[in-house]
Design goal:
four-stranded mixed β-sheet, FabH, lipid biosynthesis, binds oxa(dethia)-CoA, Peroxisomal Thiolase, Chain A, domain 1, 3-oxoacyl-[acyl-carrier-protein] synthase activity, five-stranded mixed β-sheet, alpha/beta, fatty acid metabolism, globular
Length: about 300
């Protein structure tokens, strides 16, 4: 069996928080935010919408796209650092709401690399023939842990969810290689302390630039592929300067990398699947394209996959 993507879906809340809105709330400027991060606006969930609500909407779209029924799901994995509550997991909440009564369910905590961790975990079950239909979701309501008094972090994050159904695909397609990694010694640079997210931006920046480039090169090598063969790069959307560094390591032109951070900010585990959906809908990704998905996050964690798109 070779695991691949059977369908994708995403959801972001309606409410937009622009940089000029933030200028009214704290000592910052649109110029600073755009030039340092590439972010212009982000989506903010309402008080009534928790992470599971965002996750559910993305899941419904992914199931429809894959033409898979909820009862056919074998496993639900939700990557999130902002669950509705510590338990039951968001995955169990989704299992109940979808009526996915045959699915096991659990959350994965790997911060912004969470979606990649989820896809790689799902891949193991599919490749061994254990499961055939796995729902992987990245979902975050980061604005509930943002410290609105801290301009260093408050301007960066947004809310949203993205999902994929992982299952067996035809030969030559699907996940060709992957890498997961962690360095707990760097945990102190990005964590939730008390009720809020705390970050040493410069340290995370240095780590991210190095790791994103290394991981892209590693997964290409593992798959026996070259940089020239890459059709599209989907990096975790944390900062355009970090993303450009990864793109330059792969020697890709600007139009071959997904940039959605301008409209969504950093949505942590959701950013990669939301970007995948948006690029697919825009027609920038076609069947048989070679994609590289790469992320990094608090933990510290990282992960990358090469993927031949299509069923
Ligand atoms: O998903 C993973 C999560 N995190 C990341 O990927 C973040 C990685 N790090 C970054 O993206 C960047 O480090 C930041 C965007 C967070 C910051 O950019 P930077 O170029 O590293 O800026 P800096 O931290 O060196 O700060 C430069 C200046 C400081 O002023 P002084 O000390 O030089 O006077 C900050 O106080 O910018 C100031 N500053 C701001 N000014 C206006 C920090 N935040 C703001 C702000 N508005 N929002």
């Amino acid at each position: 069996m070779n695991a691949g993507i059977l369908g994708i879906g995403s959801y972001v809340p309606e409410k937009i928080l622009s940089n000029s809105d933030l200028e009214q709330m704290m000592d910052t400027s649109d110029e600073w935010i755009v030039s340092r991060t590439g972010i212009k606006e982000r989506r903010i969930a309402s008080d009534e919408q928790d992470t599971s609500h965002l996750a559910y909407e993305a899941a419904v779209e992914a199931l429809k796209d894959a033409n898979v029924l909820a009862e056919e799901l074998d496993l639900i994995l939700v990557a999130t650092v902002t669950p509705d509550m510590s338990f039951p997991s968001v995955a169990c909440v989704i299992q109940e709401r979808l009526g996915a009564k045959n699915a096991a369910a659990m959350d994965i905590s790997a911060a912004c690399a969470g979606f990649i961790y989820g896809v790689v975990t799902a891949t193991q079950f599919v490749n061994t023939g254990t499961y055939k239909r796995i729902l992987v979701i990245g979902a975050e309501k980061l604005t509930k842990i943002v410290n609105w008094e801290d301009r260093n972090t408050a301007v960066l994050f947004g809310d949203g969810a993205g999902a994929a159904i992982i299952g067996p695909v035809s030969e030559g397609r699907g996940i060709l290689s992957y890498e997961l990694g962690a360095d707990g010694t760097g945990g102190k640079h990005l964590y939730k302390g008390g009720d809020h997210l705390v970050m040493n931006g410069r340290e995370v920046f240095k780590f991210a630039v190095r790791q994103m480039g290394d991981s892209c090169e590693n997964v290409l090598k593992l798959a026996g592929l070259t940089k020239e063969e890459v059709d599209f790069l989907i990096p975790h959307q944390a900062n355009t300067r970090i993303m450009d560094a990864a793109r330059e390591r792969l020697q890709l032109p600007k139009e071959k990398m997904s940039v959605i951070i301008d409209r969504h900010g950093n949505t942590s585990s959701s950013s990669i699947p939301i970007a995948l959906v948006e690029e697919y809908k825009k027609g920038n990704i076609k069947e048989d394209d070679l994609l590289v998905l790469v992320g990094f996050g608090g933990g510290l964690t990282w992960g990358a996959i090469t993927l031949r798109f299509g069923r």
